Give the backbone structure.
Amino acid sequence: FMSADDEIGAVEIPQHPRGLWTIASSPPIFDIEAVSRYIVINGYSRKKCPLPVAHFGKLITADRREIEGYQSIRNLMVEYMKNDNPERPLCIGVFGPPGAGKSFAVSQLAASVDPERIKHLNFNISQFRCEDDLIDAFHQIRDAVLEGMVPQAFFDEFDSPIGEKKLGWVKYFLAPMQDGEFREGDSMHPLGKCILVFAGGTSSTFQEFESQDPEVLREAKVRDFISRLRGYVNIIGPDPQHRRDKFFMLRRAILLRSMFERKTPHLFDASGRLRIDEGVLNAFLMIPEYRHGVRSMEAILDMSILQDVRKFEKASLPSAGQLDLHVDGELFHRMAMD
């Protein structure tokens, strides 16, 4: 790899960059694969990894777009928590492909702000059958407020349809977002101080969400919904976004290091170095696609035989047939054998 005194790379910041400038895409381009391997095995080191990362609780990211989005959302949360009597809920949008880790990201942002006061509530709108289910969710939010907490309600797949009606649930959020109240029969109930997080299920980015069929957007009152949001973040996920995406290995490396630290601490030596076969690490970093995003990465760790070993060897991997649930199993095995 590199000697202890070597630097992986150095870049110059252009005075007039074209488009989105990032360290990892600037000449001279450093060895992204080498940096990714180093992060998984040794953890992030500012000296060894010549790119900025951001920490929000247990959430770590090296992607500039994610860093800026997360920091903006965190700033909104900090300011909102300082306000003792806000007029309405703080409303935030979170978008990303399935398995990108949207719920985890938002929970860690809250943990970095005020873990003692913010209470997490999760609701999957795609499982709701009627408006009464949503009213019940609002009551749970209100109950948490009455307990002296600031609930952070995570509405997963808020953009789900109702029957054949696309984005059918969106209009039911408008009054609570704007007035901080919800209707039950003839009665209006105040929500109180709370954070409402809307996670997209059918749109991977905010831009995709707002650029759907104009007639669908009009009928669902999406413009009114967007006007009530105070911020959003697009979570990229572990897979390449396009052919020129060089960051996917870095994203995977940071996720893998965190997963190994949480799930298999016995695989680390006294210096914090992860004991893992080079081929196995290569497969984790280089496989073209995880079928279910971060959930698939985590599932492969759970499926591997690791409890009674001190190193992640090829023999610890599940069979190719089992791996097919989450990746191309045969390809993963071939990459691990290289």
User: Anything to note?
Assistant: The CA atoms of residues 119 and 151 lie 5 Å apart.
